[in-house]
Amino acid sequence: MNKDVVKTIIPLAVGVLAGMISFLLTGNMRSRDPFGIIVLVFFIYIHKFILPKFGIELGGKDFLGIGFLTLAGWYISWTLLLNQ
Asked: How many domains does the chain have?
């Protein structure tokens, strides 16, 4: 599989997973929303260990794209779960 595809699919999937975990940990309590953001930051950091297992070398600009894709997946999934 192409490395660029892996650098796109993995952050989106991890972002969706982070959104689900943020929802499960915070529930409907709006006062705990900052904890959901901490979960997002933790999952962005996890990429440092996940992507090298797929043979992907990460540079400085790569983390900007990975962070944005993870943020997008997290935001969309968490928002959809909060609006049930």
From this structure: 1
Q: What angle do CA 46, 64, 11 make, to 5 degrees?
A: 45
Dig out the tokens for 14 from the structure: 């991890």
Interval 54-78: pLDDT, tens: 888 888 788 899 999 999 999 999 9
Q: Residue 7 sits in which domain range?
A: 3-82
Instruction: Kindly list the distances between the CA atom of residue 69 and the CA atoms of 28, 29, 30, 80, in Å, as whole numbers in the listed order.
Output: 25, 26, 24, 17
| Cβ-Cβ contacts under 8 Å for 61 (sequence gap 6 or more) | none
